[in-house]
User: Fold these one by one.
Assistant:
Number 1:
Amino acid sequence: MNRLHNKIAIITGAASGQGAAEARRFVEEGAKVVITDLNEVDGKALADQLGDSAIFVSHDVSDEASWQRVVEQCLAAFGGIDILVNNAGIYRQKSLAETDQALMDLHYRVNVLGAFFGMKAVHPVMKAHDGGAIVNISSIAALRGSPGLFAYAGSKWMVRGMTKSAAQDLAQDKIRVNTVLPGLIDTPMLAGNAPEYLEEIKQMVPFKRLGAPEEIADAVVYLASDESRYVTGAEITVCGGMSA
Ligand code: NAP
């Protein structure tokens, strides 16, 4: 249980769902973690549970200025940044006809600019400390057309594209940048779906069940750890076979 021994990580959107599972797994594996989120109540409660290995920083990923605060607080608490997980995201089910500019802007600001600002903010620190690992969370909705998810799927395609370009740009600074593409994962993000709809989509998964947040955390630990030291620009789908 020491795969992230001595590593210092920032995980965005970590008050809930997959980000919270990642924060727990990272601490189990020996990391120090900065949990960031808009949700202060759950974020602080999780940091308290994790004790000296975690702090919570209130953070809107779409606000570039607030990233400087996150970086400063991470350096002040733990003295470095080895890992960034750009996990925070929003999801609205709307078709092209139902999507307006405000919904496009919202997905762009949180899912796209949020990951971009994060990579920009940690880059100089990682570069000065001999490298690091960035894991961006996309979605299997970004592997092909996704009906009724126009803005969301478009934003997650951008995450894939940014990750591959960043992997090329940051390789010289020993910073690896990879993507995890979750399938249908049992988190509050899916809670807005009707139970009948969830049952219907479960039947489309070869494993006939939703994924657990911990199953995404396992893939993120691999990409964040030195076990993946020769892996950059890669994509791991964790989806019970849905993208096969
Ligand atoms: P979740 O439980 O809703 O967690 C997302 C977290 O991000 C929430 O705590 C949310 O806070 C926070 N957040 C939203 N906007 C933010 C912002 N501007 N700044 C900082 N934090 C913000 O969902 P999840 O399933 O764990 O999602 C994690 C990632 O996986 C997302 O990128 C999502 O798109 C991706 N994903 C999820 C699934 C799935 O089936 N669940 C599938 C594929 C990909 P609030 O609760 O306050 O909004």
Note: The longest strand covers residues 175-182.
Number 2:
Amino acid sequence: MSVIRAVPIGTGHYLPERIVENVEFEAKVDTTDEWIRSRSGIERRHFAAEGELTSDLAIAAANNALKNAGITADQIDAIVLATSTPDQTFPSTATKVQAALGMRHGFAFDVQAVCAGFAYALVTANSLIVSGQAKRIMVIGAETFSRIMDWTDRTTSVLFGDGAGALILEAQDGTGANTDRGILACDLHSDGTYNDLLYVDGGVSSTQTTGVLRMQGQEVFKHAVSKLAACGEAVMEKAGLTSDDINWVVPHQANLRIIKRTAQKLGLPMERIVVTVQDHGNTSAASIPLALSVACQKGTIKQGELLLTEAIGGGLAWGAVVLRW
Ligand code: UT7
């Protein structure tokens, strides 16, 4: 059976210049480098400069992905951008990227599923490609979470960072078997009864302010491990695969302990997990494409290998995708 597959053809990322080491927080809140490292695995993160916008990070990542794929923006039909920290309430940050890339054709829009945003954007882009609405899509995750931190709250301010990653997907013919390259299976979930575990305490229709991030970390941690393991299992089963088949897991980079426990539940050794949380912190929707791009740049991920990506965040919203690189 001939099917259309959404196949990755290029990745790129961008991290703001300013690197903030854990020790910098010791002067701001009651914390230590040791606590941050041991509880989260984070050692440093990047923060955007004053006036540097989410779209600026996204544009840089998109240009790097175009270069990596060896194509130009006129060969892209659509941009799907995952963010919870857009430049403005509207228009979408995706249309700002579209304009900056010099695209007057196609369409661009944002997806908002917080830390699960890139998984949701991938699934959306896959559907657009499989249904024949676009041949090549730029999928971006871009965030400036440093803009929504409460700098007096030690339980959240030490965890997040800024950055952007991009992945270009292209429609290619497949056989329908799991030996095809491209996206093989997707599994998305959300449960809004958990809204109060991770949220921003402001917004357009409620306070007319941006608000700052609030999180019940321990609760989110418990949900993260069980839900990521369950949807990881589910997506592998949908693809007709087991953990033995997976070459690389590219998880959302929130906490090294969550990554380790989830890997353990899925029966995957840490040697097969891509970990960047130590250098990026939690960059929400940008974390997976950032990790993907860094791993590709290092030559870690090779064409033909099987990848599992999974993410969870505010909503709660979570999801997983299996693809062959
Ligand atoms: O990306 C979206 C999804 N988000 C996540 O996946 C985050 C999930 N949660 C986590 O990663 C972890 O729960 C945290 C890293 C946020 C916290 O780690 P934890 O091991 O769950 O710590 P905890 O919240 O149970 O706090 C332990 C102690 C508390 O003190 P007491 O009550 O035991 O005296 C906290 O007040 O650590 C204290 N604490 C800190 N101490 C030093 C909390 N934050 C800090 C800090 N420095 N920055």
Note: The longest helix spans residues 217-238.
